[in-house]
TrEMBL record:
Cited function: Putative regulatory subunit of serine/threonine-protein phosphatase 4.
Keyword Cell cycle (UniProt): no
Protein name: Serine/threonine-protein phosphatase 4 regulatory subunit 4
Region (Disordered): 712-734
Gene of this entry: Ppp4r4
Record note on quaternary structure: Serine/threonine-protein phosphatase 4 (PP4) occurs in different assemblies of the catalytic and one or more regulatory subunits. Component of the PP4 complex PPP4C-PPP4R4.
Coiled coil, from the record: none
Keyword presence, Isomerase: no
Repeat positions for HEAT: 211-248, 250-288
Organism: Emberiza fucata
Alphabetic keyword roster: Coiled coil, Cytoplasm, Phosphoprotein, Repeat
Amino acid sequence: MRPIISKMDFSHSSLFGYIEDLQELTIIERPVRRSLKTPEEIERLTVDEELSDIERAIYLLSSGQDIQGTSVVANLPVLMRQNPAETLRRVLPKIREVLHVAGVEMQLTAAVSFLTVLQEESVSIHTYSHSFLHIILQNLEHRDAGVSNAWLETLLAVIEALPKETVRHEILNPLVSKAQLSQTLQSRLVSCKIMGKVANKFEAHIVKREVLPLVKSLCQDVEYEVRACMCRQLEHVARGTGTELTKTVVLPELVELARDEGSSVRLAAFETLVNLLDMFDADDRSQTVLPLVKSFCEKSFKTDESILVSLSFHLGKLCNGLYGIFTPEQHLRFLEFYKKLSTLGLQQENGHNDNQLHLQTLEQEKKYISVRKNCAYNFPAMIVFVDPKNFHLELYSIFFCLCHDPEVPVRYTMAISFFEVAKLLNSDVYTIHKELVTLLQDESLEVLDALVGHLPEILELMTNRGENNGSESKLLSIPDLIPALTTAEQRAATSLKWRTHEKLLQKYACLPHIISSDQIYYRFLHRMLTIVLTNNVLPVQKAAARTLCVYLRYNRKQEQRHEVIQKLIEQLGQGKSYWNRLRFLDTCEFIMELFSKSFFCKYFFLPVLELTHDPVANVRMKLCCLLPKVKSTLKIPTDKHLLQQLELCIRKLLCQEKDKDVLTIVKRTVLELDRMEISVDAFQKRFYENDLLDQEKERQERLLLEMEQLEKEKQKNEGRSTNINDKMFEKKRK
């Protein structure tokens, strides 16, 4: 790029530079001109509009360009729905013909379209197998691996739906020749995957006679890719043959493959063994599987690091699957192996100094991070393995290390599994309080987001032990919880990840069940109001508004409640910004959801109606949409005067509203209000459930007032016997 010239320079050299720039622009423009279609090309791409869909498809497949043919193939499911008979008779043979010379894009599109036709059941399975199956089988060994895999996926789905006899004659019998060593590598790999699917289709005696010989042949193939592929299909073969044949045929093959010279084959054998643990009896596990697993574990650090990541991922399943046959010594050995994996890459080997240590390659670092991440994933399973009672002695140090791991993926996985760990520990959950605080204060928002998903349930488990002592004493069991929660919210607020902030605010609605009313009032409630007033993200504002209403709902001091209500009305409902007034209406919706009808009518009904005079049309529009809900809070005859106020506001809007959009909504709202029935003070059958719910809300609101009165009396009577008051207070609190 040329530097920007501040003043026009008309020297010869400068003008020559400008000419060069213009020439460059001309060169850039040339390809655009060349890409335009000539009249002949446009003529060739034009199709007669009067042709039917079938005729157009045949025309485009016969004389159109590749992109047009691909479009027809993509539209095949639609043609099959509209006119299946004609599509099968005329269009499908043409597609079959075109696919012989088609490019990769059309082949991939055809594989997807054929699968869609099967899934939509446009034709019977008999018709499908007669018309489509041969085309799928013909393209199965395409020279492009991506195309071949696409057709294979379609075939595997088709096999599930096909009758047994069709599978046997059309697919299984040809496999005998396709699986021979004389066939291509691609053909033998395809045969392996088909074997895994076919094995579940037939009875055990047919599988033994016709499938297992081919399986054994492919397990002993000269190419390691084929052996590895067939090894991964042995799980499906075993499920199809049953435990007896698994013991006599499949297990010996797995044992042999586990000692294969190819690392990918050994890895496939190990993973298949783990997945089939439930099919082996105790003797097979102790005499065959366990020695193999021990061998894998020993070699993983010394000679075969390729299996390390897979071993760490399956270790929890492995330990619990073999739990019944472990001796105490073996149990301890596997636990120590897990501990070693959990800190892999974080510790230096003994006997080496810094100068002797080689720098770890980037690839090795990634592998070690994956291993520790897998250990974090398996942590709940390892708690079951050692028994939750032994957690502090056996696993706490590892839990601490994983929660403080330098890599985010490891801590993220621990945050996801934290709730499972807390459930398993049950009454011993207090041992991981510090780690909860640590993860709440984690520098990565991904970790915080993962933890927050189950935060209410985690906090409930954490504080359950103090449930009988009143909510004020619950906090004592989690030191530093409140600072950690406030720090987490502030970090989310200052980030650009507003969804994490929204999620966190929604989950913080659980706090009234965890900490005291005063602590919520002084540390969280005003923060929620600030977010509603100042944040620029609507979902975040709404989440904060709802959580604020929950805090108000459970606040135990009338003075504090009145103060918050006043602020909501003055700073939101009567705020200078129309945006704040819109949020006031959102907040009123949450009030109607969480509080009783009488509460809303007492404090918010008239402030809401005042917004009918709002100067901003959007506010009046939102208010009109809210009016049916507002009317549903009224009870006759108690709220007759409020009903009159509502009707007066509606009449004013009808007469005075000048904005046509608002007026349209007003008229629609009037019709809806006219159709509404207002509940009366006495119970009515059609409002029975709603009235019961509202009555329960009123009862809880009265209890809060009574509890406040009891607290005041309790403070006055300090030093005197207050056992009766204490019992009454505790009863009401519950």
